[in-house]
Design brief:
This protein has 201 residues and is an all-alpha fold. It contains 12 helices and no strands. The radius of gyration is 20 Å and the shape is elongated.
Length: 201
């Protein structure tokens, strides 16, 4: 833990880290130092909890796995700078499985037509379930767009990072007078993706 203290990680954050990830005590001090230095090079403030999250994320993978994740994002048109910026915002964007990473990018970019760089700016997307949240909300937003009920410049953070309660208020209840069937339509999108998930398992 001296490595973390010497690099400016507050004691309170170290305590939280030990409570959440006690396995850190088993880390090689050499590897931990390498990870801490890499996180610092990425420009993450060591006094923030995000520094601890980033340290966990990088330490959970070996170097070859990290490079594989970088290669996947590069294939989707992300620059190394964009990958690092996405990591700074949401460190676990590198820890998601390769299958999920590819599935989310394929759906958002190839099927929904989102620009890959927009996804890079909202890397928290990879935290959410593809079947339960990303697909139904994206398909529902596409329907709203086709009806002229929302603008084309909708931010991905608004679409995916809002709670279910806020999402319903913003995109369903707001248009209840013009399109009272929207709630049923949204529920159909949810049920459709759940059905597709069960059929694929």
């Amino acid at each position: 833990m001296n490595i973390l203290r010497r690099n400016g990680v507050p004691g309170s954050n170290i305590v939280i880290m030990l409570l959440c990830q006690p396995r850190i005590l088993m880390f090689s001090s050499v590897r931990l130092k390498e990870v801490v230095e890499e996180v610092k090079r990425m420009g993450i403030d060591s006094s923030r909890m995000k520094f601890v999250e980033a340290t966990f994320a990088l330490r959970s993978m070996n170097k070859s796995t990290i490079e594989k994740k970088f290669d996947i994002y590069r294939r989707w048109g992300w620059s190394d700078q964009e990958i690092r910026e996405a990591f700074r915002k949401y460190p676990t964007c590198l820890t998601v499985s390769e299958d999920k990473l590819l599935a989310v990018m394929d759906f958002l970019v190839n099927k929904m037509g989102f620009d890959s760089t927009l996804v890079a700016k909202q890397s928290s997307i990879f935290h959410w379930s593809l079947e339960k949240k990303i697909v139904p909300r994206a398909l529902f937003a596409q329907e709203l767009l086709s009806r002229g009920l929302i603008n084309n410049g909708l931010k991905l953070s608004v679409l995916f990072d809002t709670s279910e309660k806020v999402f319903l208020r913003m995109f369903v209840n707001r248009h209840a007078n013009k399109a009272p069937e929207l709630l049923k339509l949204y529920e159909q999108k949810l049920n459709t993706t759940e059905k597709l998930k069960s059929e694929s398992t």
